[in-house]
Amino acid sequence: MRSRIGLVDPSSCFSSQTLESLIASLANRIGRPRNLVFLFLVICVGYLLVISSTSKTQQFIDNNNLLGLPETDSLLLPENQDVDSITVASEPKRILYWTGYYDRADMIFGMGQEPFIKAGCKVTNCWATGDRTLLEQSDAVIFHAGQFNLSDLPSKRLQHQRYIFYLFETLPLSRNYAVYFSEAADHYFNWTMTHRRDSDVYCAEPYGKIRRKASSPLMEQLPPTLPAGERPVAPAKLMEYVQNHPRLAKKDKLLAWFCSNQKTHGRREDYIRELGKYMPVDIYGKCGNLTCLPKNSDRCNNLLDEYKFYMSAENSLCADYVSEKFYRALKTDIIPVVYGGADYAAYAPPHSYIHVADFPSPKELAEYLMLLDKNQALYLKYFEWKKDYDVLRGPLDGWCDLCEKLNDPQEPPKVYQSMAKWWYDDVPCYPGDSFIKTILNHNNMQE
């Protein structure tokens, strides 16, 4: 009977005489002087290679310990995530916060390796610190632009390091900051990490983002085919009157606005004042006579349940500036009316917001909002996107992208000649004075 592969009996391959013959032949060959010398050299070289490899491994571990980094084989993985599903680079990457983010030394993101793990990053071998003594061991050095100080810059810079310009405010009137006008800041930064989508690392952590639900199908055709066993929606249900819809239960007020600054570069306060001539606007904070304390609390967010619309007005009309005001409204059952310089169509699904720029004047915007107020079916159309999308507050994708870029050996060298040119000149903010003047002229022409 034939033996199966892997279960062959050694005795069936060699007889005792054959085995003795092989051993004798091998001994005879090794016994020759030239072969003995060759064998001795092979053993010596192998031994030296093993010693060298062990020494380098121990040196790498000792360096990690010296820098406060974990050993390579002890890099933490996210919970419920196996090694095969994550990219682990060969060497840890150090990220040094040269400044904090205002009063937050940890840049809000955190210190050490744990924030990258909690964020679910694909690459988790990055290590954040605020310890300046580790400057020379750092791969990236981050400077918050609002706290960039010419008298407090690193004294030494290594060729492989990336210096990062970090900012989330638009600062349209701050071109006189040192980070922009000083020659010392020219050819200084390698990467940008901001809310602008043309940044080297796009980061919307303080604000938010919208993500398609995993359960939502990506439709390649209309109408989509129905899964097996599913029936079309009954016509009677489609034709039902929507007056008792749960989203309308508490909403007996029109438009709310929470205001913290009375005078802004974008002149939002003047636009809303003009809008108030044609419809009721409840203004909370410094610009109005209503209050809700503490600010940004659950109590204030719950207050929005009484309103149908929320004025999501930015303080400046600058590229890609979409702040938490927008995402706070989208998170609740209220329609945001946006006043800002971003391309909102790139940030949110169609029919999820109303843009003031789509109306020639505040008067015509007011007429549209009051039309939606009276027509409940049209109003509810602005919430259909929610079945396919989730709103995330404080997304950490940017930090994950930063870690991946630091680990990419193909990442090309780069340096910014002038931050002022990139931040202010390439895509300039639109002065609110110009926008307000345009709409007021339109109003005067109508009257």
Furnish the topology, listing elements before pairings:
Elements (H helix, E strand, L loop, with lengths): L15 H15 L2 H35 L25 E5 L16 H5 L7 E4 L10 E5 L17 E6 L10 H4 L9 E4 L6 E2 L6 E4 L22 H4 L14 E7 L8 H8 L5 E5 L12 H6 L3 E7 L10 H8 L3 E5 L14 E2 L6 H13 L1 H5 L8 E4 L4 H10 L12 H7 L6 H15 L1
Parallel strand pairs: 1-2, 1-3, 3-4, 4-5, 5-6, 8-9, 8-10, 10-11, 11-12
Antiparallel strand pairs: 7-13
Question: Keyphrases for this structure?
Answer:
447 residues, 13% strand, 5-stranded parallel beta sheet, alpha/beta
Overview in brief:
It is found in: Golgi apparatus, Golgi stack membrane. With 447 residues, this protein is an alpha/beta fold.
